[in-house]
Each structure stands twice: as C-alpha cells, then as structure tokens.
Design a protein that fits this description.
alpha/beta; 4-stranded mixed beta sheet; globular; 7 strands; 3-stranded antiparallel beta sheet
Length: 448
Amino acid sequence: MSAPERLAGSIAQARPRALEAKAARVSLALALALTLLGCGAASPEPAAERARSPARSPSVEPASSVEPASSASAELAGRLPTRDELRALGEATRAAERLRERPFLRPVPVRIQRRDEIVRSIEASLDEDELSLARALYVAIGLLPPDVDLRALLLSVMGEQIVGFYDAKLRTMVIRDDVMASLVAQVRAGESALGAREAMVLVHEYVHALQDQHFDLHAVFEEDRSIDEENAYAALVEGDATLAMLAAGAGRAGASALRLVTRDPTFLRARVADAGALGVSDPALAAAPPILRVPLLSRYLDGLVFVGMLHGGHAGGREGGFSAIDAAFRAPPRTTRAILHPEGWIPAGDARPIALPALASMTARGFVALDDETLGELELSIFLAQGGPAAAERDAEAARGWDGDRLRVFRRAEPSSEDPSTTAFAWLTRFVDEARALEAERAARRAA
C-alpha cells in the first residue's frame, strides 16, 4: 500500500508567443487539477505484460472502451450508466487513449455511485490491522499524535474529495453521480463532455485503467513492498495520469503542449513549485498531518516532474516520450530518491537495502518488534522537519543524500517504574557521504 493508504491499510521559457499561450493553458490546467485530486487509484507494481501492444487507432465507438458493468464488479454499490452517460464516457476514454498513446485492450466496466456510497466503500476498505500498525509506527517517531483516530482522519480526507476512481482489483471505473451529471449536461447541450471541469479527472482515471490493462496494476496487492517503494511507484502511476490530464486541459494543443512542457525540466519544476505553493483547497486535506498530506501530494506533484523528465528525455538515460514512461513501468523506480532526483536515476541501481541487527537488548527490556520498514528520502524529510520552523513540512536539504534506511518499531505491554516507555524505535540511515550524514544528524537531533 502507499504511505497515505498505509495510514489506512499526495516549461526554458517558451519564446514564441503562441507557445507561451499554450504553456499558460497547461499551467492553469495544473492548478485546476490540484483542486480535483479526488482519484482513488491504487499505486501498484507492474507485472505480467511486458511487451507494448501494437498501436491501433483511438477512434473507436464508446462501447469498444466502455461497458456498463461486468460480473466481477457486480459487488460494487451504485447503478449502471445510461446511454447518454456512456456517450460522455466514450469521449473520456478516447481522450485517454489519444493523449497517453496507448489503446484499451478491453472495455472498462462502469458503476455510478452517490457520494455516500463512495464513502462507505472507502470505509469498508480500511483494514484495522493496517491502521493499528501504521498508527504505532508514525506515533512512535512523532509524526502522528498518540490520540489520533486514523479511520476518521482518512475518511475526512478521502471521502469528500473523491469524484471518481478506477478500482484496479475489480477493474471497474466508479464515478460519482453528480460528476456524471455534469458531463451528460455538456453532451445534451451539444457540446463535448470534455468541456466539463470534472472531465480532466476522468481522463486521469481512464489512464489508470490503461495502466492496469498494459502493466497489471492489481499485482501490487500480491506483493510485499516497503513504504518507500510504494511512495515511489505511486508517483509513477499518478504522475503519468496527471501528465495526460494536463494535455486534456490544454484542449486541442494536447500532445504538442506536453512536448512544450517537458522539453525543459526547469520550467516544469517551476510550475509545479508554484502550484505547490498555492496549497490545497480541501479543508480536510489542508488540516491533515504532514505525514498524510505531503506523500499524497508528492505522488501528483513530484510524480508529474518525474514522468515529465522521462517524457522530455532528461531522466534515466531514456530517449523520451511515452515509450520512456512505459519502460519505467516495466523497470519501476524503487525509491523516492529516484522520484525527487530523476536526473540521476539509474533504473537498475536506485536502491541499496539495509538490514538491522537483532537488537537483543530491546527484547531483554520487554520490547517486542512490531514492524521493520524503509521510509525513504521523502518521509525522512518529513521526520527531520519536526525540529525546524513550525511552518516547514519537509527538511528536503537535510534528507538529501539519503542512501538507504531501515526503521524498526517496538512496543511493550508492561513498562517498569524505572522505564515507563511503551514504544521505542531504532532507525539506521545511510548517506552518500559524511557531510550529508552529519547534516542529517543535526536535523535528527533537533527533531528528537
């Protein structure tokens, strides 16, 4: 699971004036996207299908990419889409194919749900064991308050903002009924469904369906992965879909606007930084602890920079374009260091595991190990920020140079009068050189 989900179970300047206008439209699309981060796709690992499928024309009838439902998704709440709704969804699927340069291999079943049905679905997916384990881990290192109600926190953050999501387990698209009504209104008025604000989010979600059909997103649920690996893969999945969504927001400029955005990484980084500085409009997300909010936003913002660097040919020794992004799905980034510093990413060598010793002294004091984890550069930067200014959510500079970590959290049921502590942790970190290690140590002492 991704780290936020683990808490339950985040253009050189274009010189020609015409290109500047296109870039401005894409930048506005990004700002809009940040107000509509309501997608619920998983953040999984690619699996069986390795070869790129032969290209075919994306000009297909809606029914070839969208179908009302399947027997596998019948357990979902909600209703089947109407004929007008299928027409509107057909536009979104064709846009996803065209912008992502990938064809659908089979129709995507659809369910239309009310907001309360979506919230109940999210609540049912929360695993109590995962909640308890995540709470123990993040409370132990100070990133969550001891009295936090994780279930209520996650429902407040996720339940209100999700407008639709692709369920990789059931391979079904779920769309909120009022969002669907906006798209249908466009169609009935004789206009394109893509003119509705929410349409960009649906394009984003249909890209997740494409990812699943070509790279088997559901495989992640069968694999044991560290928090750092999950955050890294989530950034690839969400960044890829966000890049296509930006192209959808650019209208007819589409693919040419993407080339403009990604050809110079400094411009893309600056636009993403501007968007991040604007903050988030959702009150529940804005009030959430940084360990929930920052990784959630990172998968969209840092993920967008990462795939933008791939698309522009600036990362991982790739030639660029969506073929470079496809290659990343087949050999994915394994650390958030790769996501945060894509210019130095080497696909085969971006992770060096660390093993902790037995620490028998902890057992002698009555502590029992609960979990071993690797948090990675992203979440380490959130931990180190605890000793900095109150407004800082990350100490990115202190975490820079991360080269591996392993965290073990302990708990004991019977503390003694001499030592009343009930939780403890051991955290071993490695850095690329001594100077970076010393800088991180100073930040860690401030945090402690």
